Please model this.
Amino acid sequence: MTATSDLGTVQLASPDLLRSVFRRHAAGVAVITARGAAGPVGFTATSLTSVSAEPPLISFGIGTGASSWPAIAEAEHVGVHILGEHQQALATTFARSGADRFGPATAWHEGPEGVPVLDDVPAWLIARVVSRVPAGDHRIVLAEVVLGDPSGAGRPLLYHQGRFTALRD
Model:
C-alpha cells in the first residue's frame, strides 16, 4: 500500500520496500568461506560490518535457506575476503545458486584452520565464530578476527542498484 504525502510516496513495510531502499545503498562486496563436511563453501555478502576494535569483531548476515548455511552453522572459523573491482566475475560466481564456486575458475588455497582462502583479493581475514544470532529468515554471525592480510592490491568492488560496480574518480 502506498500513499502520497508531504514526505513523498510512503509505503508500508514489506520485503519489496526494504529491497527498494537498500538498492540505493552502496555496499562493499565480500566473499565468506568455510570448510564444510563435503568440501569448501562460500557466498557473496554485502552485509559485512566491523563491529568492535577491542576485541576485533566482525559480523555478516546469511539466509537460513542459503546452500552455505549448513556449513556456516557448524563452522568454528570463517574466511572473509574483500573483493576488488576486478573481481566482478568472482562475486557473481559466489552469488549464483548452483555455481561451481571452488571450480577451476576460482584461485584459492587451504588457509589457517582449514578455511578456504581466495587468492588475489585486496584483503582477507580468518575469524573464529563466537555467535549466530537469529534475525528473521537470516542469522547474524559474529566472529572474532584471528589473523589476516590487508596487503593485496586494487580498489574495492561495490554493490549498488542491483549490480556490481566500481568507485568513480
Helices lie at 15-22, 69-74, 88-95. The chain has a mean pLDDT of 94. Residues 15-22 form the longest helix (8 residues). The CA atoms of residues 84 and 155 lie 5 Å apart.
